[in-house]
Amino acid sequence: MARLLVLGGTGEALALAEALVGAGHAVTTSLAGRTAAPKRPAGALRSGGFGGVEGLAEYLTRERIEALLDATHPFAAVMAGNAAAAAARCDLPRLKLLRPPWRAEPEDRWQEVVSVESAAAALPAGCHALVTVGRQELAPFLARTDVALLIRTIEPVEALPGHARLVRARGPFAVADEMALLEAEAIERLVTKNAGGEAAAPKLLAARRLGVPVVMVRRPSPPEGPTVPTVEAALGWLDSVIR
After folding, report:
1. Do the Cβ atoms of 166 and 160 come closer than 8 Å?
2. Residues ≥6 apart with Cβ < 8 Å to 192
3. What CATH superfamily classification does 3-100+221-241 receive?
């Protein structure tokens, strides 16, 4: 049995914690604490930040963690970097569990951009856009007063301006429902991050079928080090580093 820390917040993290607990390991999953009533993972749970690299390294040492498994969101670049630096400082094995990105099909109409700021700038004046980038990075879009915004988030967003409306929803979504939303709202651009995974993919299928252009924010590169795409591969990596 090993003492493990899983950095969570994704469906993969939930599945990973369940598999690790089932294998007999002592698992703590850490969540950032930004989502109300998140699904509880197997094993122990902590919520909130660590206080940067120093705080995470201190936690790893204090709790006698033997391996760190980073299963945070593909766009959680700061946390991924902190995890890599803290694990290196403590000389601990570290793994990044990273779901594969979405890939454009020939019939897709994607415009790939490098940031949410670039995504906001790419919207044509006067268009109706569905924005699904999360509530933390809405500022560049809200500044586009010449665009009608439909913003979809899990958590509430306070004090939206008049050109923006909010729809709160949590996936997974059905393709038919996504198509109905795009048609009912006369959506002319879909804006999203390339998070990958199945839960949010139906909006891309809906956009493909309706010919709606997609403004796709490229994901950041993960830190150097071992990276796997599945829970099964993560379990295999752990077996190779924990004796």
Report:
1. yes
2. 132, 133, 200, 203, 204, 214, 215, 216, 217
3. NAD(P)-binding Rossmann-like Domain (3.40.50.720)
Amino acid sitting at position 133: V
pTM (2 d.p.): 0.89
Helix residue ranges, H only, 108-147: 116-122, 139-142
Helix/strand/coil for 241: helix
Give CATH for domain 110-217: 3.40.50.720
Separation CA 142–CA 162 (nearest Å): 10
**At residue 35, does pLDDT exceed 70?**
no
pLDDT tens figures, 124-155: 999 999 999 999 999 999 999 999 999 999 88
Q: Where in the chain is the domain with CATH 3.40.50.720?
A: 3-100+221-241, 110-217
Residue with tokens 């369940």: 18
Cis peptide before 172 (omega within 30 of 0): yes
Determine contact, residues 205/178, Cβ cutoff 8 Å: yes
H helices of 75-188, in order, are: 77-90, 116-122, 139-142, 175-184
Residue 83: name the closest of 49, 113, 132 by CA.
49
The pLDDT confidence band at residue 32, using thresholds 50, 70 and 90, is: confident
Query: Which residues, at least 6 apart from 212, have a Cβ–Cβ distance to it below 8 Å?
Result: 109, 182, 187, 188, 189, 190, 206
Q: Are 93 and 87 in contact (CB under 8 A)?
A: yes
CA–CA distance, 164 with 90 (Å, rounded to integer): 46
